[in-house]
Amino acid sequence: MSTPSGDPSQTNGNRAEETPLATPTGERQPANPADNTEGKAGATPSRLSRPRVVLGVILTALVVLALFGPPFLGGNHSKSASDVSIPADPGHEQLVDNSTGMVWHLVVIYAVVAFSLLYYAAKYKEGWAHVFAHEVGMALLVACIVVPTFEWSLRKSEHAQQEAMRTRDREEQKQRQLQLEADQKRREEEIRKDIHRFVLGYSIDSDVVRELYSSVFESKLMRENLGVTYEFRSLDPNKESLRVRVAVSYRIKNMAKESQHYPVVHYFRNVCPAEEQKDGFTACQVFEYPEDPKTLPAKLIHDFNDEKERGKFKVVHEGMKHGIALDDAIIIAPGQAIVVKYVYEVSKRFSDVMTYMTTHPAKDFRICAVLCDDRVSDLEFEVDSAHRLDPIRVSVPTKNARFYEWKINAAVLPGQGIELSWHQQAAVPAPAVDKPVANPP
């Protein structure tokens, strides 16, 4: 059964025949562009096959990178020295970072894939392939920004934690070192005490040995050339009171192997001060002792009489006690020494006594007495010592002497010293004259 040729509903086995469209040039084109196969039988439609092939390649690449990328990109061969964190201590767990290189390689690859997808989405703007390529490309582009930021913050946090661990370990190591040094010093002290007990003898009481060790053997400072000079002057013609000027000088040396702090502190007491004459310190000087005293002079470092230096000294007067002290202790290097000189004046009676005791071990201990005017020329002196040896007189005895000097021919321990007492010479009575007896008439 045939149908009219003008009926477009049935053509070639009930297939509808479409009317070709005319182009501006007059050529006829099929209504369905997909039927334009340029005369080639079995050709693949171009607009549908190209997106599928591209998407298939991209997805395959993503799957391959996801499965096999990390082992190849983030292996040990790609890590640098900055990717490995050095442990703070061998006892801690070693933190090894192998992911930094992998992250940056994947970021580069994802960026390439993202721009490829966005390029594809911009070129082909129809169908589900456009939407898929655009969304996946934007997601990968955002991931290229977020992943490095997250990696940077994570590495920064890990670095801060590792630095805190290193600081803590350094502090612990320092504390352990200090503890070891303290234990070593304590053992050395115990060994020295045992040696001293063995040398001195175990028959001596332990308290005496301990005091001897604390006051003598533990002392790292030694006084040398210790000299005390007393100058006497009369205050009134009635010889009721006199003025004594005391000048003390010494060199103190550090005998230890480490630096020592020496506080410059001195004081005296006067039981019967005179109301018209105030007692107190009049001078205090500290010198740096030169290494070669024969060629170099001593360097003055502190002077009580200097207006700029006076604020560094503290003068104390409490009851009978008068004192002077330097605010900051002097640091003496090993084997070095300083020289200290100070002067104070007191009022005394014509019959009185003064003592001087040292607070450090000393040697070359000398004491002098000088009569400065005629009204005190009749004073006589007696010297005693808190020492196993008596002081010996060094000056030559002469009639009407004005200068006296004594010394102790041995080292002086802390708490030992000299006592100087004086009084007026006793008046010598005139010899009795026998009167002639008159003869009785």
**N- to C-terminal distance:** 224 Å
Mean of pLDDT: 77
Task: Describe the sheet with the most strands.
Answer: 8 strands, mixed
Our estimate of the beta-strand percent is 25-35%
Order of strands across the widest beta sheet?
8-7-12-4-3-14-17-16
In total, how many beta strands? 18
Q: What is the rounded Rg?
A: 54 Å
Number of separate helices: 4
Query: What's the overall geometry?
Result: elongated
Helix content: 25-40%
Order of helices and strands: EEHHHHEEEEEEEEEEEEEEEE
- Structural category is alpha+beta
Spans of at least 5 consecutive residues with low confidence? 1-48, 70-96
Secondary structure: elements and pairs:
Elements: E1 21-22, E2 28-29, H1 46-73, H2 100-123, H3 127-200, H4 206-217, E3 221-234, E4 241-254, E5 260-262, E6 265-269, E7 280-288, E8 299-303, E9 313-318, E10 321-326, E11 330-332, E12 337-349, E13 352-357, E14 365-371, E15 379-385, E16 392-393, E17 403-408, E18 417-424
Parallel strand pairs: 3-14
Antiparallel strand pairs: 1-2, 3-4, 4-12, 5-11, 6-10, 7-8, 7-12, 9-10, 13-18, 14-17, 15-18, 16-17
Helix pairs in contact: 1-2, 2-3
Throw out a few tags for this protein:
441 residues; alpha+beta; elongated; 18 strands; disordered N terminus
Summarize the structure in words.
This protein is of the alpha+beta class. 31% of the residues lie in helices and 27% in strands. The protein contains 4 helices and 18 strands. The strands form 5 sheets. The protein has an 8-stranded mixed sheet, with no helix packed on it. Strands 6-10-9 form a 3-stranded antiparallel sheet, with no helix packed on it. The longest helix has 74 residues. The N terminus is likely disordered.
